Amino acid sequence: MTQEPKAAVFDDPDRQSQSTNRALNRVKKLFRMRETGLVLIILALFIAMSFASPYFLTWVNMRAMAMAFAVEGIVVVGMTILLISGGIDLSVGSVTALAMVIAGLLFLSGVDPWTASALAILACAAIGAIMGFFVTVVGLHHFIVSLAVMVIARGACLLGTGGRPLGLYTLPPEFKFIGQGSIGVIPVVIIIFLVVVAASDFMLRRTTIFRKVFYTGSNEKAAAYSGIRTKHVVFFTTTLCSALCGVAGIIYMARFGSAQPTFGIGMELNVIAAAVIGGASLSGGTGTILGAILGVILLSVVSSSLALLDVSVYWQDIIRGSILLSAVTIDHYLNKRRR
Amino acid sequence: MSKDLILEISNLSKAFGPIQALRDVRFDLRKGEIHAIAGENGAGKSTLMNIIDGILRPDSGEIRFDGKPVEIASPAIAQRLGIGFVHQEIALCPDISVAENIFMATTNISRAPLMNYARLAQKAGDVLARLGDIDPTALVQSLSISQQQLVEIAKALTLDCRVLILDEPTAALTEKEAQILFDIMRKLVKQGISIIYISHRMVEIFDHCDRVSVFRDGQYIATHNVAETTPTEIVHAMVGRVIDKLYPEKQGEDEKTGRVILSVRNLTEQRRFSDVSFDLKQGEILGIGGLIGAGRSEIVKGICKLEGQVTGEVVLNGRSLATSDYQQSIQEGLVYLSEDRKGDGLFLEMSIAENISALSLRQVSSPIGILNDGLETGLAERLGAMLNLKCGHVGEPVSNLSGGNQQKVAIAKLLSVNPKVIFLDEPTRGVDVGAKSEIHRILRDLVRKGVGIVMISSELPELIGVCDRVLVVREGRISGELAGQDMTEENIMYLASVLDRQLEAVE
Questions:
Q1: Predicted ipTM of the assembly
Q2: Which CATH class name applies to B5-243?
């Protein structure tokens, strides 16, 4: 155990070679990164599909795929941050639907759609805060709390609407523009998505608040022993995830022109799968926004490909599940080898 | 090879990544002997034991059990061979009964489809009757630490073992309980069972063992018949150098200022400790000794407001503190180094730099909370150089480092906030000998710079070698204070374990 040190950084006289080494290391690191692997898989799928179906590489199909993952991607961002902090949220689908229902009902009762949307997002944040309370103050597990809230929020959706979609035909066009419009050729939905992704990626990597999220998820006790108020951190990530579900719900509402109480059933699985494929760990401490987004894109490209290839919808879930299982298995072995 | 050997190990090596934990080690165990294993932390004792128990696989080497070469690939195989291991850390299921815990392994290999709880309790009662007064139907979580230790031993005894490994079994026991344990050990040996006994306590080795093998830095050093050697010789073999150079110089007469940095008055926590009062003076390293579970860590965590509902007064540099959580304690300048480095001291998969800045992100970020890589790396490199941290780059994960360097990262983390008082809980546990004395020297340097240091250690030579004054804690109270010539292993152990009425005789 008295090994000679491999190299002491501090007395390396050859700065030049050190910086080349560092650059080389960076390239090596890039190749070892999960994100690189995901990009390669997605590219391979693109190439294969462009041969398999002439329709795949068309602008219309690309746009449809992007629209499909963009809104869900916002929820994935929230989920990834929550997973990094060591939590999990099963209620994302129900809460997204609830945001639509609340905003829809408020709008139908005469509130202007912008205020209604803001209130709905606030309500979702409040739901997250309540979950955060049960987790941090009462001391229950995220899984159980969010399972209960998932059922409750769905029940509230059905109760509020009588189980039928709310047609919101009188939504003003400037509101629908969020979900349906384009700036130039790029849909507004995609722009919102890119802004959320860029902002959250920057914050996650560079801000002290989100660094504390990593500390807490990596080792909650060590974080507490570093003076970090870990309960505040978990409360924050839980609330943030639900609030982002609210944002997604509003965009869906603007896109559909209606509020659908049964929307998003099973969404939590897709969202968690995307985050995990992208490198988030259920035990907390790891995960990146870029990885999670690539996870979402991969799942979405697969679904779209299967649809184009006329594979039965029933097969799709089986294939999606298998992708998740293989992704985490490969990752598990890579991690083991690295250690 | 001889017929009276039950276990024979030769040329055994094991590495963890770059760290060679065992190098070409040999060891043999006779039938019906108590064989002590001595060595400093990090000498490779636990690695060797874990290999014998099948928890770890060796990289190379041969193990012969009862004359036949064996491959102990799992604890289950070790069990089948008849090897029982009582770990130092208690590994019981707290929510189930004592009897069920004792027969966990038996239940595991049993083919009966149904549990017979009545018989289980009765059989457990029989085993426990030999060890002490423990109710087999009680839940483990309701037992004291020493009772739990006895349950662990009972668990191993029920396994029909031929080799029993005891890893510091007396660390948490009172003297009376330890005596009972030694009686049992002697009975077992008469039945032909061989015992491997790991202990830091020379007295125990010389009173109760037949032979002793010494390990140092992952290497086998020597085996002696206890009757033919002396504690001095063993200690010498363990540390491999003249012992008085192992520790840095103590506080000089001219360094005694008498200025009190921290004073603690009547600190009480309902269940864990009561009425703790002491002063920490500038220029001294204050040690806290006592048995595991006596409340040492709890007192220190209480001062830092890390744990528990604490009443009493903490005065830092003449000002009474009104802190309510650890974050505020850090801002006041009180920091705590955890005893469980891997469990709650470090973020293992995060980088060295990210670990070091965890206490003070404000120092490495802009006023609006944007992290600055340059500042973060700079802080880590500055503190790393100061502590002589050996690493490739501060961006690499802490899990790549050796125990000693990991501990330096943990200490650098505390130093990043320029603390006034540092509380260290077992600062050299699992650290190799070289890094250990380096850490001791760092502590002495810090004290000379005016930082207050309070150090908890279970290792008596360390406590005596490093500290200028030692407080001994027993059952949540300070049972005595020792300084200068009075700081001896005997005095500390006495204060740590004697009964109240005997204490008066000491004073």
A1: 0.80
A2: alpha beta
